[in-house]
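Why this split exists: single-chain examples teach little about how molecules sit against one another. For that reason, every record in the complexes split bundles all components of an assembly together and asks for one structure covering all of them. Below is a record exactly as it appears in the raw files.
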Amino acid sequence: MLEALNTQPADKILALVAQFKADPRANKIDLGVGVYKDSEGKTPIMRAVKAAEQQLWEQEQTKSYVALAGDPGFADAMIGLVLGAEFPRAGVAAAATPGGTGAVRQAFELIQMANQDAKVWVSDPTWPNHLSILKHLAMPTRQYRYFDAQTGAVNLSGMLEDLKKAKPGDIVLLHGCCHNPTGANLRLTDWEHVISLMQERGLTPMVDIAYQGFGDGLEADATATRVIAKSMPETIIAASCSKNFGIYRERTGILMVVAGNDKSIRVAQDNLAYLNRQNFSFPPDHGARLVTMVLGDKALRADWEAELESVRTGMLALRSQLSAELQRLSGSDRFGFLADHRGMFSRLGTTPEKVAQLREDHGIYMVGDSRMNIAGLNAQTIPTLAAAIIACDI
Ligand code: LMR
């Protein structure tokens, strides 16, 4: 049987992790996988998460199953975080999932179950795993223009023009904030145009929000998602806790479905639990419980928010430093977009050949499409990267 299998293409982001590890050069720089790193290159456990973990160790009496859709307390806490405390809870169906990727996968399956013909429109570019999962599920997929390589900003007119070709019932996959891989984001006025178009064309938004708190702040980063959820009859939201709680390996995420009527919410809730059961049965609880504890405890929450804010502002400072250093070396403003981008990533906007040259000649690792993880930098490595970019004639 097994000889009938084909080997699978390596995930480009994860393959880079192994390649970086194997590189013996001491001065190598890892700007690959989207994992936050502090100035010493460590991915710390956040203080509030550690404190919650200690409390949990003392208080938890059983490891018995919780519920197919996960702990309702986790859903309440996450709905509050993503959609805002005032959002009507009754208008949301939700199920905990193994990470944000689990939520994305379940969302696609839900869409497939509801409408076999729905095309999923994804930004060009998008997180490669979106495309990979869609392909795995054999779902019809289309791309809409998103990134303007000349300016490093969003090509809004191209995006709208392409989405006009979508048919009623199609899905528009949107990054709620901190677009991965480009770092270029829509402004609120741009979102209004996208929302109007989705309303006119009868399209359903699916928002992937994996970096809330990494861009302009916890509330600001959720604004687009909240406006979409309020404006559209139905919205699917896949949210991740991996980055903003720093609990990557705990696999903590949630899939939410927002709809205007009780019947839709009941049937969506039923299907979310069903999908969990088919795919893995009960979702992991440990990370979800930590998140619930942190969000539900005033002191822990304040500490978490403060630490997250310092992570965010630290990344913003790295952006400004890199952009300034490149301005100094190139004598031009052409890298100014790096300071305007938000979140963990920026697309430098160069060719795979130049990316390979940065890796081979300078030991600098970024994804082949020239996506850089800004958190992989520090005050010492910024001048090295900037000099290498100029040396490679980028
Ligand atoms: C990334 O884009 O690097 C992260 O989301 C990690 C991953 O799983 O790809």
